[in-house]
Amino acid sequence: MAFQLIGIVDENRPYPSKKTLLALLANGLNYIYHRSATPVGLPTDSLYGQNQILLAAPAPDMVPPPYRWHLKEADRLRLSAQEDLKTHLPFSTSIHNLADWPALAGRVELVFYSPLFPSISKTGYAPTVPLDELARQVQAIRAKQHQDLPRLIGLGGIDATNVSQVRQAGFDGAALMGALWQNHDPVTALQQIKASISA
Asked: What sequence ranges are listed for the domain Thiamine phosphate synthase/TenI (predicted)?
């Protein structure tokens, strides 16, 4: 399966236009993740792009289809014993320990793991486990559990200079925030990241 690229909207910066969001999807971004269930600027006048948008919410009924439900780690841990999570599976969720990844097999499509590198957007947010150690853990988990593992998406400080390392470490994709929104042209930034993966 192709290496996935997910853009995370940075709520601390001016909100990107719908034109920019759709241009990113048209240029190879697989999904756009909003950390809120009711962000402004979502494409609502056509189905184009809606099923590529992840909305974070603590409950499935807060995310209207065809948008995709992202369940944050704290909400998942709180809901794990409740019926909602058994009958309505989220599309994606987050973890901060790779040991939690296998337990999500068959329950979600994407799992975001962070951080891989010092954050571009969040000062002082840096990894506690080196990437080469994470690569060993990923390999060991894949060797032990071959089926139904969600696609593993690396997050944190990823840009054109290091995205190829994320792929080499065994991740199935990369989530991008600062690399897109701290660039005056996010579409060009995305193209440079894609070129780095292909190089």
From this structure: 68-180
